[in-house]
Write a structure and sequence with these properties.
Length: about 375
């Protein structure tokens, strides 16, 4: 196959395909006439993959404070859970979200090839690129359209949710997205693929991604702020939160409040824990899940468990069941929180290297359901 020089590396990762890089049309003619010899482009896919699958410019060690939020992100990464961060402007929501890929398990070679294929179809590979070996992080602006998010067009192209396949889709300032745009996320979050239909054909693109979202708690941004007063009132807060539908929130496992970092922690010279250390714990927890779901087909981590499996895999002892019952009653947690708490508690138990879900695992999972608490916004 004769290809432009800029695309040769990308094509050369395909097995049993000889790719000839061409710099000009005259070179192609000379090669075909046998007047010049152009060596084929060659890539050792596995060496290329191994060389780049741990390369990140960001690290959790840069983050001061926010220990509870970093713990929640570790839980989300370990179980593949969707996560929403709620907090005032400047609290560090975006900074934390951008570092989440650094603690996810490295991609396998098959995941890397699959991800590369999607980006190649969309024309997003860039010149001289060959293989995507780190997990994608896609962050579309809140003015994006539903077609740009899901995919489509006269010649259907993958959208942002497919470009985030095997990685993270980050939606900053979630309530600012158009409601119609957010609602199209519901089916892909459930099915982990998206179907783009046209009159004569339909295309199915994969969309197995972690959804990470962030939002202010109210229009002014200072509801529940430790120092500043919120000017919105309970009704304004509820109106703001109602921009996000219940069915979409139902697909987000962890709701985490982010508070401003105190000055003492912000000015501390001591660095935080490195992403590499957190990632090692996440990998160990994922390994437990791979063994657990070995016979379960396409289920690879706890967040993918359907309700039928939750009841059998997330069995509770008497103390844990009692604690969950008390929490559901006293905190006025909604019914949709029940399965989510069980899935998250199973992940916390995996991080704790525990076969059984213990009361402390349930207690931690309960605190990650801020938006399910009745009266959270007054």
């Amino acid at each position: 196959m004769l290809l432009p020089e800029a695309n040769a590396n990308e094509a050369s990762i395909v097995s049993n395909l000889e790719v000839i890089p061409i710099s000009a049309l005259k070179s192609a003619v000379d090669f075909l006439n046998g007047n010049t010899i152009i060596p084929p482009a060659q890539q050792n896919t596995r060496e290329l993959f191994a060389a780049h699958n741990h390369q990140y410019d960001l690290d959790f060690a840069d983050v001061r404070g926010q220990a509870s939020v970093k713990r929640a992100m570790e839980v989300a990464a370990a179980g593949g859970h969707n996560l929403i961060l709620i907090g005032p402007p400047g609290a560090g929501k975006t900074m934390l979200a951008k570092r989440l890929p650094t603690i996810l398990p490295p991609m396998t070679i098959s995941e890397a090839l699959e991800t590369t294929k999607i980006h190649s179809v969309a024309g997003k590979m860039g010149n001289h690129a060959s293989l995507i070996s780190i997990r994608p992080f896609r962050s579309p602006h809140h003015t994006t359209s539903d077609v740009a998010l899901v995919g489509g067009g006269s010649i259907p192209q993958p959208g942002e949710i497919s470009l985030a396949h095997n990685g993270i889709l980050f939606l900053d300032e979630l309530p600012e997205f158009k409601r119609a745009v957010l609602e199209v996320l519901r089916q892909p979050l459930e099915d982990r693929c998206v179907t783009v239909s046209r009159a004569r054909f339909s295309v199915v693109y994969p969309a197995n991604f972690m959804l990470i979202a962030s939002m202010n708690p109210c229009p002014c941004g200072f509801y529940n702020h430790p120092e500043k007063e919120c000017l919105c009132g309970p009704q304004g807060v509820q109106r703001y939160l109602s921009k996000i539908s219940g069915p979409l929130l139902d697909r987000i496992d962890l709701h985490v409040e982010v508070t401003p970092v105190p000055f003492d922690e912000l000015s501390s010279k001591a660095g935080g824990e490195k992403s590499e250390n957190i990632r090692n714990r996440v990998i160990e927890a994922r390994d437990r899940q791979i063994i657990r779901f070995k016979e379960a087909g396409e289920i690879h981590h706890n967040a993918m468990m359907p309700s039928r499996l939750v009841r059998t895999i997330c069995e509770l002892d008497t103390a844990s069941e009692k604690l969950l019952k008390v929490a559901m009653t006293r905190l006025d947690l909604s019914a949709r929180a029940y399965d989510r708490i069980l899935k998250v508690s199973r992940t916390i138990a995996d991080l704790d290297n525990s076969d059984a879900i213990k009361p402390e695992h349930i207690a931690e999972a309960i605190q990650y359901r801020s938006l399910d608490k009745e009266g959270w916004a007054g």
